[in-house]
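Field reference: sequence -> structure
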Amino acid sequence: MSLLETIRGPRDLDGLSDDQMVELATEIRAFLVAEVSKTGGHLGPNLGVVELTLAIHRVFHSPHDAIVFDTGHQSYVHKLVTGRQDFSKLRLRGGLAGYPQRSESVHDIVESSHASSSLSWADGISRAFQLTGRDDRHVVAVVGDGALTGGMTWEALNNISDDNDRRLTIVVNDNGRSYAPTIGGMARFLNNVRTRSAYRELHVSSRAVFDRLGHPGRAVYRGVRGGLHGFLSRFTNNEALYSNLDIKYIGPIDGHDQVAMEEALRQAKNYGAPVIVHAITQKGRGFDPAVHDVADQFHAVGQIDPESGEPLETVSASSWTSVFADEIVDIAAEDETVVGITAAMLRPVGLHKLAERFPARVFDVGIAEQHAVTSAAGLAFGGLHPVVALYATFVNRAFDQVLMDVGLHKAGVTFVLDRAGVTGPDGPSHHGMWDLALLQIVPHIRLAAPRDASRLREELREAVAVTDAPTVVRFSKGSVGAEHEAIERLADGVDVLARGERDDVLLVCVGPMATVGLDVAERLADQGIGATVIDPRWVVPVPESVIDLARDHRLVVSIEDGVRVGGIGTRIRQDLREAGVDTAVTELGLPDEFLEHGSRAEILEQVRLTPQHIARDVVAQVLGSKIPVARPLDEADAQLDVRRD
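Structure field:
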């Protein structure tokens, strides 16, 4: 039996020797490479926190002591140590989540995978322990150097330093990267600490001397290590970063030195007040393909060969992101006012090609979406047209800035929202399902949802041409589907994709749901129900022709992959009422619930947003409302026919 197989909970670590801990770390890395290569997931970040996580669980006692991971994508080792070693369905429906999840374990606390929030959580939890007399309980927050680029981290530090009578340890997992290399002044400061020759030479030489002495020498080394690092901290002036915050600082520590990490954490634990432990780690540690991957060190991978790290499947179809990446470069080449902004995700959102072509015109602001949006308003005021590229879920974090800094000032800013709608394996906090409902309430905003690659290129160009209001172009994760050419484009830009023999049902499809709508129309036609399928292209404001078409039909059905409450269907219903159109409206979309991880297809099936479910529901509604159809059917026959496949 391997050492890893004997670990069923954190306390199983207590009896292991130093040598066994090294062996366990090796086994964990081998396990992660073997298992994550089968399912995909966040490989690089977890390979980098093996010793750090083991040290935390050896020194602190979860769940009595609360452990909070910032973003949580680096929690795989934590899952293994807390008894979750079945990774066969990692991030798949019914399997382990890719982030901490309370329903999985009492050891998991924060489920949200949005960065820079851990210190605020830790601040609140530690205050609660203090106020309720649970002074024996510690709080540990693991925060990456990338998260230190987020303003929320510094808001939390400001408040943590205001009250020193709490048992709170902040572990800075400093690997020089967020998704990609961390940027900004904070990154340069920490990089200076990592690379300063005096630290590296003294650290390495002292360890080498003591290692030659064998086990007694290592014991001596452990005894002097605190003083050694205290000296180095002062020498490199690293404490200057935190001195004005009045927080004790320990480090920098080699985050892959199990003994050193445990000693530093014990010092922090015994201090009785907030402490920062600065651990320097290597993302992708122990897996050469990850270490040598310049782009992102295998931050997140699909299925890969566990030896070479090469993808097992070559994706032939273009992704939505790649289509945007190419088109924005062409647009920028034609219009020198166009600039790009990203929040620590240059490559994932497709701005890397623009940065390569026009490096001075792309700004990576770090994990700081709020700053990105307000900075964009300033760029627009200065005569430029910023394109802010974010994951749809992350625009939630900057809603106030979209509303008050961009919207109120009628700034010509384009938001490109990747991973909109149902995203799949990353779970509740990564689904981009709230953007349509949130953003449409911003006055004067214009929202586009392309159905295919051609419309993405087209609508992106239309968005960038708007200079007096915010515009949004949102698209899904993954490969672009088939092209759907319109049979007619109406005067206000609405595309008619199909017309039935009768004007019974108007299917208003948002973005990629056009494919679903066309399938539904065919199923309805089999039941003698005529359906018109349209893609508004720009879904907010609601085009006038949508109102006119609704007036001519007996039922309007909106289909969107955003949350149904306050969604596009709701907007259409309101506009119809204002126009005096009394056509019935059925709003189909995602429920106002947090959807678990699973494939996009599985989740759409779960929420009944498949052609079969929609057609069945429309047939039932048509029959129930006594809408005349070309070939009358009783309900039983209609239900049977719709279920034909």
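Note: The chain is about 40% helix and 15% strand.
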